[in-house]
Amino acid sequence: MAKTWWGGLDIQYLWVAAEYQKNGVGRELMLMAEREAIKRGCHFSYVDTFSFHARGFYIKLGYSEYGSLDGFFLKFSRHYLVKQLG
After folding, report:
1. Which residue from 2, 16, 52, 59 puts its CA 20 to 30 A from 32's CA?
2. Is the pLDDT of residue 76 over 90?
């Protein structure tokens, strides 16, 4: 699930079943969302993820980390990432 507002694409939920991971499905979903966001006039996209999730996936797609917050369940970090569009 994602929404666009104030020039940004807010990626709220992206979940890909295990059997489709590593096959480009997540990448294609993200690229489709980014293309649609550009059509809607967005100039950046942002997402957050936990340390045990998909931080590397987003970095491979050109996102860069602008912050993190430690201490979730006393062992995990939440990472905040952004990508300029267009």
Report:
1. 52
2. yes
